[in-house]
């Protein structure tokens, strides 16, 4: 059983339960590998098996109680419902397709029990927020006829609601769940394969080598490593938990305040979900929503991701210069958390075939096959096979081969556990989206945003921003994006925002919600590691992301930055202007450019930054002139200070 304990690290359960979890996890992951790479199933069968396995694992991994027998019985009842409902759909799918509303009493009973099971599974994995939202939507659907005015509707009876959710491919087994059951699932398994083979261990090594010796090195290491890891994990909270255990203690050892270390890590961990080339699960769903290729999404994400990263990176840089913080080198070979000693690897080590091949080649194959017209699922399947194959043939010693073969099995448990945590969330989101369509509430909410935009597009964008942030409170990015894309994005498109820019606008704020109070899961986890006040950490995180908050507005007004129609000289000028604008925002936020800014300089930088992000040439020109004026003034003042006192270091202290 020691091997199973290793495969299920962090799972608290008895030996028998762990064995059952292991078997179910292997079956679940194998199901997705087989249907991605060998043969496919009809959508209703694929989604019902996917949901059934996911719910089963949730109730095995997150029992309501480990001691009380009655509570265990409740778990077993939910497990039986999940299994029975899945088998029932598989056995009756032809009848469901032929006559989805020709329901029997048994259909309604099973459907009702499944909905209750889904809500409870979501509560155990993501908390109360999403189940409560789903319950509100279900209640609104049934009592709409009692609500007066424009927000009321005809009302639907329970049998109609349940049959629509349970027996059709627009309810529980709808398009969003289908995307998760085919594309997102195999992508998460690919991420698990990279983690199981140790490929992701190179992320921190690369980050240390690239930024560790620079000013503010520890915080910059956090940005780079979290961005790299986040593009695979697609989950800010998971990202913080993995990279934060290394980067936060390292920052604290170099006298970064604990709340600052937590804010840096939480902010950095949001980056990976919008960082090409993989960008997390939401990118695959966006491609399906928009009906465009995944490559189109990657290209559109390049400049916004650059601006987002630059915003956090330069704020950290200016903070470090202002406070004269040390580089990572001073901690070389010293302990920095989890009993690990800091070691900065050489480029020879990082770029060796064994190290870089396992990380880069599978990703290259994934992107090449997608670009060559293969489905995302099949491309991911071949990338997984490549990753495991390279790992197994790392060397040909029998002992080493057996050890790596055993380690590679971990991908089955890692992949299944990642899937189990998002299945209830996605199914709840699908229920909400389905009922939004049936009641017309989605259109009404969209019309509200559009009506605001009749007076001001900026106000509509602010309304969509708040909407996305609220939806993202305590909810993983994928679920928050799905809900926002169903309600806010159509309204923005109607107001004239380019579709891909509207969807990215919603995605960015769904990502940022992980560090936005009052429910900010990324901040909560980072603060726990740092031992800091979560509120102080959240305020720091928001300040670090101040420029990042501006980025979605930049590409909403100037969709050319998304390279939809390629690149030319005008677009290059817009990109340059946006980059200088973001850096100016960072300098204003940090209070430092070449030296500490006075209040007048901060005001000038804020005005300049605002003018630089407006896609009008004369505004950008004035903004650039203002930044140049501040730079020249600070440069001359520094020279005068050096000539008179020779004490530049003292004059630039906070």
From TrEMBL:
Record key words, sorted: Membrane, Transmembrane, Transmembrane helix
Keyword Transmembrane applies: yes
Organism superkingdom: Bacteria
Keyword Membrane: yes
Spans through the membrane: 20-39, 45-62, 69-89, 101-119, 126-147, 172-194, 292-316, 350-370, 376-393, 414-436, 448-473, 480-501, 507-529, 541-559, 571-594, 603-636
Domain TRAP C4-dicarboxylate transport system permease DctM subunit: start-end pairs: 114-564
Pfam families, per database record: DctM
InterPro entries in UniProt: DctM, TRAP_DctM-Dct_fused
Family matches, as NCBIfam families: TRAP_fused
PANTHER family: BLL3936 PROTEIN
Protein name: TRAP transporter fused permease subunit
């Amino acid at each position: 059983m020691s091997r199973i304990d290793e495969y299920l690290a962090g799972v608290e359960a008895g030996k028998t339960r762990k064995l059952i979890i292991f078997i179910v996890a292997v079956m679940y992951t194998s199901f997705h590998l087989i249907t991605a790479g060998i043969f496919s199933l009809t959508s209703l069968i694929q989604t019902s098996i996917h949901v059934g396995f996911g719910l089963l694992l949730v109730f095995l991994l997150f029992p309501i109680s480990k001691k009380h027998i009655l509570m265990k019985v409740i778990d077993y009842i939910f497990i039986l419902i999940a299994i029975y409902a899945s088998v029932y759909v598989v056995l009756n799918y032809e009848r469901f397709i032929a006559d989805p509303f020709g329901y029997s009493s048994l259909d309604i009973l099973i459907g009702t029990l499944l909905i209750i099971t889904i809500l409870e599974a979501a509560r155990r994995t993501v908390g109360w927020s999403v189940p409560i939202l789903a319950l509100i939507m279900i209640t609104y659907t049934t009592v709409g006829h009692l609500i007066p005015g424009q927000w009321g509707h005809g009302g639907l009876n329970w049998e109609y609601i349940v049959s629509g959710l349970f027996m059709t491919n627009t309810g529980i087994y709808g398009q969003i769940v289908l995307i998760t059951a085919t594309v997102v699932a195999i992508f998460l398994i690919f991420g698990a394969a990279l983690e199981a083979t140790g490929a992701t261990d190179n992320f921190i090594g690369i980050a240390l080598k690239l930024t560790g010796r620079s000013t503010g090195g520890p915080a910059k290491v956090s940005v780079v490593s979290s961005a790299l890891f986040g593009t695979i994990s697609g989950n800010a909270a998971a990202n913080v938990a993995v990279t934060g255990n290394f980067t936060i203690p390292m920052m604290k050892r170099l006298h970064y305040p604990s709340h600052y270390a937590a804010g840096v890590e939480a902010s950095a961990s949001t980056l990976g979900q919008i960082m090409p080339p993989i960008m997390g699960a939401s990118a695959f769903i966006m491609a399906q929503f928009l009906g465009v290729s995944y490559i189109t999404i990657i290209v559109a994400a390049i400049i916004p991701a650059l601006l987002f990263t630059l915003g956090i990176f330069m704020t950290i840089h200016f903070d470090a210069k202002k406070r004269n913080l040390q580089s990572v080198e001073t901690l070389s070979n010293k302990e920095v958390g989890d009993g690990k000693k800091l070691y900065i690897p050489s480029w020879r080590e990082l770029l060796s075939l064994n190290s870089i091949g396992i990380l880069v080649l599978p990703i290259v194959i994934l992107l090449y096959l997608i670009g060559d017209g293969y489905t995302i699922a099949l491309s991911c399947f071949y990338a997984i096979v490549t990753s495991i194959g390279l790992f197994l043939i790392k060397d040909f010693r029998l002992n080493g081969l057996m050890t790596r073969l055993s380690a590679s099995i971990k991908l089955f448990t890692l992949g299944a556990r990642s899937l189990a945590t998002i299945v209830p969330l996605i199914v709840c989101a699908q229920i909400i989206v389905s009922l939004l369509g049936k009641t017309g509430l989605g259109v009404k909410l969209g019309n509200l945003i559009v009506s605001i935009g009749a007076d001001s597009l900026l106000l509509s964008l602010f309304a969509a921003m708040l909407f996305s942030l609220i939806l993202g409170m305590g909810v993983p990015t994928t679920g928050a994006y799905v809900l926002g894309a169903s309600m806010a994005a159509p309204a923005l498109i109607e107001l004239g925002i380019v579709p891909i820019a509207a969807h990215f606008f919603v995605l960015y704020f769904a990502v940022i919600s992980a560090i936005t109070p009052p429910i900010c899961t990324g901040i909560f986890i980072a603060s726990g590691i740092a031992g800091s006040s979560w509120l102080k950490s959240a305020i720091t995180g928001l300040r670090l992301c101040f420029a990042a908050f501006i980025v979605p507005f930049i590409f909403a007004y100037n969709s050319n930055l998304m390279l939809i129609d390629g690149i030319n000289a005008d677009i290059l000028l817009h990109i340059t202007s946006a980059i200088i604008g973001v850096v100016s925002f960072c300098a204003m936020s940090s209070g430092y450019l070449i030296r500490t800014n006075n209040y007048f300089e901060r005001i000038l930088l804020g005005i300049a930054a605002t003018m630089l992000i407006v896609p009008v040439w004369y505004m950008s020109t004035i903004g650039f002139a203002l930044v140049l004026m501040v730079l020249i003034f600070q440069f001359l003042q520094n020279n005068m200070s050096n000539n008179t006192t020779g004490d530049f270091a003292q004059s630039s202290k906070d």
